[in-house]
Write a structure and sequence with these properties.
Layout lengths: L2 E8 L4 E10 L2 E9 L2 H7 L5 E4 L1 E3 L13 E4 L6 E4 L4 E3 L6 E3 L7 E4 L4
Parallel strand pairs: 3-5
Antiparallel strand pairs: 1-2, 2-3, 4-10, 6-7, 8-9
The structure holds zinc ion (2 copies).
Length: 115
């Protein structure tokens, strides 16, 4: 079984967090989110993780450690992932782009970091 840790950013807390994902039959499932510092994430190489395919939340997934969001959006500009709490407009936690939300859980390429 392949497992990777990807990074997401919480626009409310303005902090990153790690999300453990594992591959099951070609799809990826988010199983656990945890607080992490940018320095630790870079040291662990989590900012280099690359996964491809659907990215679902496991039933056990605990959500963002800051705002509890389970769903996420992928930024149309930088391609990174941020929490999404059903707002109609979102702000990317990474690059600050504000725009309409496009909820994405299907067929994404996640380049999960570049701190
Ligand atoms: Zn959050
Ligand atoms: Zn962005």
């Amino acid at each position: 079984m392949r497992a990777e840790v990807i990074l997401m950013k919480c626009p409310e807390a303005r902090k990153i967090y790690g999300v453990r994902t594992e591959e099951r039959n070609g799809d990826w499932f988010r199983t656990w989110a945890f607080k992490i510092s940018e320095r630790t994430a870079a040291n662990e190489g989590f900012d280099k993780a690359l996964i491809r395919g659907n990215l679902y939340a496991d039933d056990e997934y605990n959500g963002c450690p800051y705002c509890k969001a389970v769903t996420f959006v992928q930024c149309g500009r930088c391609g990174k992932l941020s929490c999404w709490n059903s707002e109609e407009r979102m702000t990317c936690g990474w690059c600050g782009l504000t725009g309409n939300t496009k909820r994405l859980e299907d067929e994404i390429d996640v380049k999960a970091g570049e701190l």
